[in-house]
Design goal:
This protein is mostly helical. It is built from 5 helices and no strands.
Length: about 160
Protein backbone atom coordinates (compact mmCIF):
# COMPACT_ATOMS: atom_id res chain seq x y z
CA UNK A 1 0.00 0.00 0.00
CA UNK A 2 2.79 2.43 0.88
CA UNK A 3 4.66 1.45 -2.30
CA UNK A 4 1.58 2.19 -4.43
CA UNK A 5 1.26 5.63 -2.82
CA UNK A 6 4.94 6.30 -3.41
CA UNK A 7 4.62 5.32 -7.08
CA UNK A 8 1.52 7.52 -7.44
CA UNK A 9 3.42 10.51 -6.01
CA UNK A 10 6.34 9.82 -8.37
CA UNK A 11 3.92 9.67 -11.30
CA UNK A 12 2.47 13.06 -10.36
CA UNK A 13 5.92 14.57 -9.94
CA UNK A 14 7.02 13.17 -13.29
CA UNK A 15 4.07 14.86 -15.00
CA UNK A 16 4.98 18.27 -13.58
CA UNK A 17 8.69 17.83 -14.32
CA UNK A 18 7.88 16.62 -17.83
CA UNK A 19 5.75 19.69 -18.50
CA UNK A 20 8.52 22.02 -17.30
CA UNK A 21 11.17 20.24 -19.38
CA UNK A 22 8.90 20.22 -22.45
CA UNK A 23 8.17 23.93 -22.05
CA UNK A 24 11.87 24.78 -21.85
CA UNK A 25 12.67 22.49 -24.77
CA UNK A 26 9.73 23.96 -26.70
CA UNK A 27 11.23 27.44 -26.31
CA UNK A 28 14.52 26.24 -27.77
CA UNK A 29 13.51 23.86 -30.60
CA UNK A 30 9.75 24.41 -31.01
CA UNK A 31 6.63 22.98 -29.43
CA UNK A 32 6.06 20.12 -31.88
CA UNK A 33 9.71 19.06 -31.88
CA UNK A 34 9.72 18.96 -28.07
CA UNK A 35 6.49 16.92 -28.17
CA UNK A 36 8.15 14.46 -30.56
CA UNK A 37 11.14 14.04 -28.23
CA UNK A 38 8.77 13.69 -25.26
CA UNK A 39 7.17 10.69 -26.96
CA UNK A 40 10.52 9.18 -28.01
CA UNK A 41 11.92 9.42 -24.47
CA UNK A 42 8.68 8.09 -22.96
CA UNK A 43 8.64 5.17 -25.37
CA UNK A 44 12.31 4.37 -24.70
CA UNK A 45 11.89 4.42 -20.92
CA UNK A 46 8.70 2.35 -21.16
CA UNK A 47 10.50 -0.19 -23.33
CA UNK A 48 13.41 -0.45 -20.86
CA UNK A 49 11.00 -0.92 -17.94
CA UNK A 50 9.11 -3.56 -19.91
CA UNK A 51 12.32 -5.47 -20.65
CA UNK A 52 13.54 -5.38 -17.03
CA UNK A 53 10.23 -6.33 -15.41
CA UNK A 54 9.83 -9.56 -17.39
CA UNK A 55 6.22 -8.74 -18.06
CA UNK A 56 4.61 -11.06 -20.55
CA UNK A 57 2.75 -9.10 -23.15
CA UNK A 58 0.61 -10.29 -25.95
CA UNK A 59 -0.27 -8.03 -28.80
CA UNK A 60 -3.73 -8.83 -30.08
CA UNK A 61 -3.98 -9.32 -33.79
CA UNK A 62 -6.97 -7.17 -34.56
CA UNK A 63 -7.30 -5.98 -38.16
CA UNK A 64 -6.99 -2.20 -38.41
CA UNK A 65 -10.45 -1.84 -39.94
CA UNK A 66 -11.98 -3.45 -36.82
CA UNK A 67 -10.37 -1.03 -34.36
CA UNK A 68 -13.01 1.42 -33.12
CA UNK A 69 -12.48 5.01 -34.27
CA UNK A 70 -12.02 6.19 -30.67
CA UNK A 71 -9.05 3.83 -30.40
CA UNK A 72 -7.10 6.09 -32.73
CA UNK A 73 -7.89 9.28 -30.82
CA UNK A 74 -5.69 8.44 -27.79
CA UNK A 75 -2.44 9.24 -29.55
CA UNK A 76 -3.86 12.36 -31.16
CA UNK A 77 -5.24 13.65 -27.87
CA UNK A 78 -1.93 12.88 -26.14
CA UNK A 79 -0.01 14.90 -28.71
CA UNK A 80 -2.50 17.76 -28.36
CA UNK A 81 -2.22 17.77 -24.54
CA UNK A 82 1.58 17.67 -24.53
CA UNK A 83 1.82 20.33 -27.25
CA UNK A 84 -0.71 22.60 -25.57
CA UNK A 85 0.91 22.26 -22.16
CA UNK A 86 4.35 22.96 -23.68
CA UNK A 87 2.90 26.12 -25.21
CA UNK A 88 1.03 27.25 -22.08
CA UNK A 89 3.57 26.22 -19.39
CA UNK A 90 5.99 29.17 -19.85
CA UNK A 91 3.07 31.57 -19.38
CA UNK A 92 1.72 29.84 -16.25
CA UNK A 93 3.14 29.01 -12.84
CA UNK A 94 3.87 25.36 -12.05
CA UNK A 95 1.21 25.51 -9.30
CA UNK A 96 -1.53 26.64 -11.68
CA UNK A 97 -0.34 24.24 -14.37
CA UNK A 98 -0.63 21.34 -11.93
CA UNK A 99 -4.11 22.42 -10.84
CA UNK A 100 -5.28 22.91 -14.45
CA UNK A 101 -4.04 19.41 -15.33
CA UNK A 102 -5.73 17.95 -12.25
CA UNK A 103 -9.08 19.63 -12.91
CA UNK A 104 -8.93 18.72 -16.61
CA UNK A 105 -8.10 15.08 -15.87
CA UNK A 106 -10.85 14.89 -13.26
CA UNK A 107 -13.58 16.25 -15.54
CA UNK A 108 -12.46 14.20 -18.56
CA UNK A 109 -12.42 11.13 -16.30
CA UNK A 110 -15.99 11.94 -15.25
CA UNK A 111 -17.01 12.25 -18.91
CA UNK A 112 -15.30 8.96 -19.81
CA UNK A 113 -17.00 7.19 -16.87
CA UNK A 114 -20.35 8.55 -17.99
CA UNK A 115 -19.79 7.64 -21.66
CA UNK A 116 -18.51 4.14 -20.93
CA UNK A 117 -20.54 3.10 -17.88
CA UNK A 118 -23.43 5.56 -17.84
CA UNK A 119 -22.54 6.47 -14.23
CA UNK A 120 -21.86 9.85 -12.72
CA UNK A 121 -19.97 10.27 -9.46
CA UNK A 122 -21.54 13.16 -7.58
CA UNK A 123 -18.57 13.24 -5.18
CA UNK A 124 -16.10 13.67 -8.05
CA UNK A 125 -18.23 16.38 -9.64
CA UNK A 126 -18.56 18.31 -6.37
CA UNK A 127 -14.84 17.88 -5.65
CA UNK A 128 -13.91 19.08 -9.14
CA UNK A 129 -16.20 22.09 -8.84
CA UNK A 130 -14.73 22.99 -5.43
CA UNK A 131 -11.16 22.74 -6.76
CA UNK A 132 -12.16 24.82 -9.80
CA UNK A 133 -13.78 27.49 -7.59
CA UNK A 134 -10.67 27.58 -5.40
CA UNK A 135 -8.47 27.89 -8.48
CA UNK A 136 -10.60 30.71 -9.90
CA UNK A 137 -10.58 32.49 -6.52
CA UNK A 138 -6.79 32.17 -6.23
CA UNK A 139 -6.28 33.46 -9.78
CA UNK A 140 -8.52 36.44 -8.96
CA UNK A 141 -6.50 37.22 -5.81
CA UNK A 142 -3.23 36.96 -7.75
CA UNK A 143 -4.61 39.26 -10.45
CA UNK A 144 -5.64 41.87 -7.88
CA UNK A 145 -2.21 41.68 -6.22
CA UNK A 146 -0.55 42.08 -9.61
CA UNK A 147 -2.77 45.07 -10.44
CA UNK A 148 -1.91 46.74 -7.12
CA UNK A 149 1.81 46.11 -7.70
CA UNK A 150 1.55 47.62 -11.20
CA UNK A 151 -0.27 50.72 -9.86
CA UNK A 152 2.39 51.21 -7.17
CA UNK A 153 5.18 50.91 -9.77
CA UNK A 154 3.44 53.44 -12.03
CA UNK A 155 2.99 55.86 -9.13
CA UNK A 156 6.66 55.48 -8.15
CA UNK A 157 7.72 56.13 -11.75
CA UNK A 158 5.56 59.27 -11.94
CA UNK A 159 6.85 60.67 -8.63
CA UNK A 160 10.46 60.10 -9.60
Amino acid sequence: MIFAGFVAVLAGVSIVVSRIINANLGDKIGVFSSTFFNYIVGFSISLIILLFTNEVTTIPTLPLNEVPFLGYLGGFLGVMVVSLSSFVAPKTSAFYMTLFCFVGQLFVGILIDYASMGALSIGKIIGGILVFIGLAYNINIDKKASDIKTKVEIEQTITN
